[in-house]
Amino acid sequence: MNTLTGYLRQAGTALRFLVLATLVLGVAYPVAVFGVGQVLAPYQANGSIIRDDSGAPAASALIAQAVSDDNGVQDPRWFHARPSAVNWDPAASSASNLGPNDPKLVEAVKANRSAVAAEEGISESEVPADAVTASGSGLDPHISPEYARVQVDRVAAAHGLAAEAVSSLVDRHTSSGLLAFLGQPSVNVTALNLALAAASQSS
User: I need a surface site. Which of 25, 70, 74, 140 has the fewest CB within 10 A?
Assistant: First the structure.
């Protein structure tokens, strides 16, 4: 009888532990992970699709969209992303694999700096570093607020919008709060250009 009582007591303990483990590991932990994901990485948690005003899928917030022709000449009407070793082709994500002292990279940076300075009407010393260097994936849609701001006058003139209105779009699409605290303030060019298109259509 004592042996049976001992078995029942052990079974009860095991059952209580099972219920507790199920609640903690099967309910509380997944809910906590989901909640943290919604705060820290909403795109990764819910998908990165940006939808237009009609609700139709328009782009991925994690991929820079090409605004250039087949020769790599970028359309002056839109904000430009960082240079890309793969011409912003999402099927061929890659870096240039050139070292920092490689003559080809040095020449590419010089050429990019001259081109950006000429297009934006600024001196070469005012060209931000991310305007002349590609990301590791070649698809990064984020640029520095500084690079976005030097493009404001060109983009505003191309769309017939006030520079202040376009600058306001840049401010609204500049990361802040926790996202900026964990990294650096950045501007999502893909989302910014979609907002610019909407503003241009409604003006």
Answer: 70
Q: Cα angle at 33 between 51 and 93, to 5 degrees? A: 50
Per-residue pLDDT at 44: 59
Beta bridge partners of 68: 74
Q: For residue 106, how many C-alpha atoms fall within 13 Å in the half-sphere facing its CB?
A: 4
Q: Are 190 and 197 in contact (CB under 8 A)?
A: no
What amino acid occupies position 131?
A
Can you tell me whether residue 142 is helix, strand or coil? strand
Confirm if 152 and 170 have CB atoms less than 8 A apart. yes
Tens digits of residue pLDDT in 119-140: 999 999 999 999 999 888 888 8
Let me know if 96 is exposed, middle or buried by CB neighbors in 10 A (0-12, 13-18, 19+): middle
Q: What does the pLDDT read at residue 135? A: 86
CA distance 60 to 163: 26
Collapsed DSSP state (helix, strand, coil) of residue 119: helix
DSSP bridge pairs for 71: none
Q: Kindly report the number of other CB atoms within 10 A of residue 42's CB atom.
A: 13
The C-alpha atoms of residue 53 and residue 194 are separated, in whole angstroms, by 10
Q: What are phi and psi of 142, to 5 degrees?
A: -100, 135
Tokens, residue 106: 């040095």
- Alpha-carbon distances of 25 from 13, 35, 47, 63, rounded to whole Å: 18, 15, 25, 35
